[in-house]
Amino acid sequence: SAGVWLFFLLGGHQFPPLTTVLLFLPELPPSEFLQVVDSTWLVLNVLSNGSSSANIQPIGVTKIAKSVIAPLAEHNVSVLMLSTYQTDFILVREKDLPVVIHTLEGEFDIYKEVNGEPVPANCDDTSNGFLKPKQAVNSTVHPVQSPQNRFCILSVAPDSLPAIATILIDVLFYSHSSPKETVSSSQDLNSITFFAFSLIEGYISIVMDAETKKKFPSDLLLTSSSGELWRMVRIGGQPLGFDECGIVAQIAEPLANADISAYYISTFNFDHALVPEEGIDHVTEVLQKRQESQR
Fold first, then answer.
1. In the prediction, which pLDDT does 3 show?
2. Residue 47, Cβ neighbours under 10 Å: how many?
3. Is residue 51 very low, low, confident or very high in pLDDT (cuts 50, 70, 90)?
């Protein structure tokens, strides 16, 4: 959708420390509790059937790893990923939009939304004739860890939201612990606290571990008929921030080469890829080999 997305962190005694929050707002009022990143971001959504709004099918982060994620990394464009139950979103800085269009226009038909209607987006519309030159990128090889939690990817019907509002507030703001000390990359985490909630154009998406799911009325949670569980790969040994290029590509490309589907969420501190539970050992092996080859 047209507009600007803002990333910021919630801090202070009223909120979990270093919680990454994504809002779609034109302006934010000043607050001592908000640390606003000095960038605005635009949202890209890759559809499998062009610009039509009917029968939209999500592509998945590993499906677009080679055609979108890798080329943007090669052109030194920092991206953030937000996978939802319904689809996947790529966020890029507004100032990088000319480079994004120039990089992807040979592979995709690119549209922008104007008054609710898709209109072809041209590089000349935004670049004023100036493009960032392609640069060689030497990505940092970040450690990957796999906590033992089993996760669920769910949705909730919008009219059911009031029925779970109290539980949501408790999980988001009260049922949390302080961040643990960072462990070495050779260790697996026993478990981590992770809960992701997104509300985008009326569609709700939730990622939570199987234990947290027990707090919610099961008849209100929507999931796949198979009830598939997911395991997580967490990327990073220290806060990643939003500036580095190639982090998503570092994970998505080897998974794409191994034909492994993944659900991906970027945050300020870590990136998170969720993969089908039965494939976690293969995923860990694939990513370890990729890391060894880059050292």
1. 35
2. 18
3. very low
- What is the H or E stretch that residue 257 is in? helix 247-257
Helix (H, G, I), strand (E, B) or coil at 274: strand
- The CA distance from 61 to 75, in Å, is 18
Q: How far apart are CA 34 and CA 216, in angstroms?
A: 29
Determine how many CB atoms are found less than 10 A away from the CB of residue 257: 13
Sign of CA dihedral 29, 32, 38, 43: negative
Instruction: Please state, in angstroms and rounded to a whole number, the distance separating the CA atoms of residues 231 and 214.
Output: 17
3-state SS, residue 276: strand
Give the tokens for residue 46: 């890759």
Q: Which carries the bigger pLDDT value, residue 4 or residue 268? A: 268
Sequence-separated (6 or more) residues with CB below 8 Å from residue 249: 65, 69, 70, 72, 73, 139
Rounded CA-CA distance 178/283 in Å is: 29
Short-list 281, 19, 249, 282, CA closest to 139: 249
CB 277 within 8 A of CB 210: no
Residue 234: the pLDDT is 93
Q: Global pTM?
A: 0.79
**75-116 residue pLDDT tens:** 999 999 999 888 888 999 989 999 999 999 888 888 888 887
DSSP 129-195: T--PPP---------EE--S--EEEEEE-GGGHHHHHHHHHHHHHTS--PPPPPPPTTSPPS----E
d(CA 13, CA 148): 29
Specify which residues 156 forms β-bridges with: 221
Handedness of CA 83, 85, 88, 92 (dihedral sign): negative
Residues linked to residue 239 through DSSP beta bridges, in sequence order: none
CA angle 238, 240, 245 (to 5 degrees): 140
